[in-house]
Amino acid sequence: MSAARPLTALRALAAIAALPFLLTACGYGSESTDDDKQTQVAADAEKLSADQVKIGYFPNLTHATALVGVQEGILQKELGGTKISTATFNAGPSEIEALNSGSIDIGWIGPSPSINGYTKSSGKNLRIIGGSASGGVKLVVNPDKIKSVKDVKGKKIATPQLGNTQDVAFLNWIADQGWKVDAESGKGDVSVVRTDNKITPDAYKSGSIDGAWVPEPTASKLVSEGAKVLIDEADLWPDKKFVITNIIVSQKFLKEHPDVVEAVLRGSVKTNQWINANPDKAKTSANAALKELSGKALPTEVLDPAWESIQFLDDPLASTLDAEAEHAVKAGLLEEPNLKGIYDLAPLNKVLKAAGEDQVDDAGLGAE
Question: Are 60 and 88 in contact (CB under 8 A)?
Answer without folding.
Answer: no
